[in-house]
Amino acid sequence: MAQATRKKPIASEVDTALEARLAAQPHFRTLRLGTPFQARIDALGLKQDWYSWAGYRAPHSLWDEELEYFAIRSQAALFDISPMTKYRIEGPDAEAYLDRVTLRDVTRLQPGRVHYTAWCDDDGFVLDDGTLFRLSPTRFRLCSQERHLPWLLDSAIGYEVSIEEETEAVAGLALQGPTSFAILRDAGFAGVERLKVFDLAEFAHDGATVTISRTGFTGDLGYELFVPADKALSLWDRLMAAGELRGIRAIGYTALNRARLEAGLIVANADFTTAEHAIRADRLRMPDEIGLGFMVDPEKGHFNGRRAILEARTKKKLRHVLVGLEIEGNIPAEHAIVYYRKSQEVGLVSAAMWSPMAKRNIAIASLQRPYGDTIVDDLWVEIYAMRELQYQKLMKKAKVVQRPFIKLDRRTASPPADF
Prior knowledge:
The protein is of the alpha+beta class. It has 3 domains: 38-83 and 169-262, 2-Layer Sandwich (Gyrase A, domain 2); 85-165, Alpha-Beta Plaits, CATH 3.30.70; 319-401, Aminomethyltransferase beta-barrel domains (Elongation Factor Tu (Ef-tu), domain 3, Beta Barrel), CATH 2.40.30.110. Helix content is 21%, strand content 32%. Strand 15 (337-340) and strand 16 form a beta hairpin. The model is unreliable at 1-9 (pLDDT under 50).
């Protein structure tokens, strides 16, 4: 009797079978989501340098990270902020609810205004920071880095309020730089000159409404625009056409990150670890430990973490401080260890760069108190610089300085300058 033998598949047959399986499961082929602006961004992505922002495909850089940075500071830069988590919070108790869960006094936030805020767990540790937009007396939009819907819903028990994530439904753009106002005016947004810093207003666009706020993450003159997702491309095209003669350029995250560092702004899970992401207990941070103590109003009524935050202040239990550093030389001290007297490890740099605007080597660092708080002298950073395929260890002097590292008058000028 002849014995049956199994034919070994050749490589081409294996490839064909794999392709068939992938075709049947398309989510394995599309690893990242696209934003409503993705068609325009992909067309400009000359470098094909992408990263994942909350599951969306976002560019580190589109064409040249250096020139993209200078577009922010000398022209106007357009950045897709659609992946930013957005919640619509509305109802008769919306104000009382948000006043309960966030640090700042929401009763002082008037309709048509925005404020920067944060929220904590019951032990006073920061869950996230973000911006709160008051669109009407009973309607708000909360924007943040991380997702918090289960926590927000649990915290809403007993309040007459509805909470819905609208990240996919609402597209967002940041238009930043000295010519940003002129571009919006030339695009036909009449009255945009009346917006002061942290103001917002609604304007007509393509049969719908676009919300424009004078906010941003660059420390420069700038605006953020929010529009229904199906009107995203027409908004992009409207801005690009109006800005052609004023140097508008689309940019990626690397350039934005440089600008935010010069402005002394912090990023969740980069400059501090949020309470829900921290694995080790000593990574948790209270508002006072990351420069957000100004948000805490002891006279305000109860809010999440109030008792723990005030107790930490009274009993001097705060363990860390977030500081700005100026470092000698011109080599960025990215992720460098900070030492006291060159020997005692006291902290870590979370963001660093040579600032073209400040003409200084700057950094943000988290230090263990009292270093950076009452002890600010004899601090050093350990930098490893690549020198012909070999790392060279450099110990550079550092001094604590105030943030922001640069302060541009055009950011707050009202009415804004017509560059």
